[in-house]
Amino acid sequence: MVFARGREEPPGPGYVGNAFVDALRPKLPKMAIASYGVDYPADISPATGADDMSAHVQSMARSCPKTRMVLGGYSLGAAAADLVVAVTKPAFGFTNPLPPAMDDHIAAVALFGNGTRRILGPLRNFSPAFAGKL
């Protein structure tokens, strides 16, 4: 689980991220679920979080190619995850887009309190590769 916390939450996966991981564990008792809290200030911009999330996903895909990840975020963290899965070229301050075919390493995307959706519409409109994973 790679989770970006909400605005001004303490470092780590945040309250929602921790609750989400805790809720998943009993549903997947035979799977080891590790969590990574995206390293970013969680203040006003999602770009730094998106860069860190993307770097972590790429690193995990290289070092553990059979591992499939769940990406998630709450509030500002959801906007960071939006950038990672929807933006294919550097934009909006986001400088580290996922390379092609990286979606094979992502099992699902879970976004909570995603304000970006109200403005731009559903994420599946921008990232067809992830449409079935949202």
Automatic annotation (TrEMBL):
<protein>
    <submittedName>
        <fullName>Cutinase family protein</fullName>
    </submittedName>
</protein>
<dbReference type="InterPro" id="IPR000675">
    <property type="entry name" value="Cutinase/axe"/>
</dbReference>
<dbReference type="InterPro" id="IPR029058">
    <property type="entry name" value="AB_hydrolase_fold"/>
</dbReference>
<dbReference type="GO" id="GO:0052689">
    <property type="term" value="F:carboxylic ester hydrolase activity"/>
</dbReference>
<keyword id="KW-0719">Serine esterase</keyword>
<comment type="similarity">
    <text>Belongs to the cutinase family.</text>
</comment>
<dbReference type="Pfam" id="PF01083">
    <property type="entry name" value="Cutinase"/>
</dbReference>
<keyword id="KW-0378">Hydrolase</keyword>
<keyword id="KW-1015">Disulfide bond</keyword>
